[in-house]
Backbone:
């Protein structure tokens, strides 16, 4: 599966700062010190109802992570999946009376278009669950053969007891885990499971549903969590720098994925930091497919909204905050974009060297995008009030905003 084209990232003079970011597993800020190549895995979409603002906010956060790393002169190895076969996708296809493959292809293409318009940096590997199946099957077999998984009526389940570090991502108690498991794709009440929390690794073929050859597992399709584990381990290996996604993935997805990988390799942890973006609401409720209260990037673009303004609307909120999308949020972003573009359109202005360092400092401090926006606002206000004599300043400011915030002025 191919990703989307990369926009050019201007190289800035000087040196960026190492990123301090909130790690869900420790509940604290950690300073990341990757090697020459920083490694990040971000969970991708299930391709239906793409791309809503909750998606966009999440991928914007991890785009900032990449930009901070690139500014430190590191390379970035970014991997993202597409869950292009899963119960919600199949259910939507049935509901709408369309082929599930066609739905996945259409929505993935739309997602690529939206990511391109928003100038999100693409992953090096962009991999669908279906194409990953040949790599998933051997991992499930290894877990089963090692006693870390078991069969139940043809399905294969992971035993959470096989990982002594299970629970160290979310730090939830068993009751909370069971509740979230039921809400987010698990089946804690299924009779015969060794532990209600045990997640499915391989689902035996069901009548009327797609299935693939699973070798000794029989025909079927992979569970949700093992998909990401197989892709991450193949392309990044254990101990990569950041596992990212929305806060709704903390449990069960990232908790279970970590345990799968740790049971497979005997190593801990799977990722050095687990980083999660907040949820976006509309009309007082979390924006979600099930509620249907979605604002789509593509719809805004069709209405003539500049993608740079959409990106500024996302950047106006700290990535870990839960916030609400409103018409005013977008109006403020459109107005801000106009002010910034007016500021950099002049032939000279006040020095922007300090602005570059303010942007670096803000983003290195747990991706504090609102502080970064405030710094550009101050520079733009100085430009509007009294200008300056530095002929290179508008260009410096424009390149810094582009490189570090992904906003083309």
Residues:
């Amino acid at each position: 599966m191919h990703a989307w084209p990369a926009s050019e990232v201007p190289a800035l003079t000087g040196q960026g700062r190492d990123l301090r970011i909130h790690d869900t597993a420790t509940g604290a800020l950690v300073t990341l010190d990757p090697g020459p190549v920083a490694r990040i895995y971000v969970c991708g979409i299930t391709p239906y109802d793409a791309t809503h603002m909750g998606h966009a906010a999440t991928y914007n956060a991890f785009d900032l992570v990449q930009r901070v790393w690139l500014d430190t002169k590191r390379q970035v190895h970014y991997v993202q999946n597409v869950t292009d076969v899963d119960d919600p996708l199949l259910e939507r296809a049935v509901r709408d009376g369309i082929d599930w493959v066609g739905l996945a292809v259409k929505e993935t293409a739309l997602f690529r278009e939206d990511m391109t318009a928003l100038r999100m940096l693409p992953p090096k590997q962009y991999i669908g669950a279906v194409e990953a199946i040949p790599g998933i099957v051997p991992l499930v077999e290894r877990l089963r053969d090692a006693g870390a998984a078991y069969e139940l009526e043809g399905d294969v389940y992971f035993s959470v007891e096989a990982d002594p570090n299970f629970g160290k991502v979310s730090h939830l108690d068993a009751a909370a885990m069971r509740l979230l498991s039921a809400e987010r794709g698990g089946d804690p009440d299924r009779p015969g499971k060794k532990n209600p929390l045990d997640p499915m690794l391989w689902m035996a073929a069901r009548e009327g549903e797609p299935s693939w050859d699973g070798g000794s597992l029989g025909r079927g399709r992979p569970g949700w969590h093992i998909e990401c584990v197989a892709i991450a381990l193949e392309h990044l290996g254990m101990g990569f720098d950041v596992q990212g996604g929305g806060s709704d993935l903390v449990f069960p997805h990232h908790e279970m994925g970590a345990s799968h990988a740790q049971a497979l390799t005997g190593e801990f942890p799977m990722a050095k930091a687990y980083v999660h973006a907040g949820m976006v609401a509309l009309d007082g409720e979390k924006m979600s497919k099930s509620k249907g209260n979605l604002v789509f990037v593509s719809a805004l673009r069709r209405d003539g909204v500049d993608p740079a303004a959409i990106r500024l609307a996302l950047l106006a909120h700290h990535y870990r905050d839960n916030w609400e999308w409103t018409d005013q949020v977008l109006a403020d972003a459109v107005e801000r974009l106009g002010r910034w573009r007016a500021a950099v359109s002049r032939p000279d202005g006040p020095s922007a060297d300090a602005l570059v360092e303010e942007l670096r400092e803000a983003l290195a401090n747990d991706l504090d995008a609102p502080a970064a926006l405030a710094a550009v606002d101050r520079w733009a206000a100085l430009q509007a009030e009294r200008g300056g004599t530095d002929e290179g300043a508008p260009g410096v400011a424009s390149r810094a905003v582009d490189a570090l915030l992904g906003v083309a002025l």
About this structure: The mean pLDDT is 96. The chain has two domains: 20-277, 326-405.
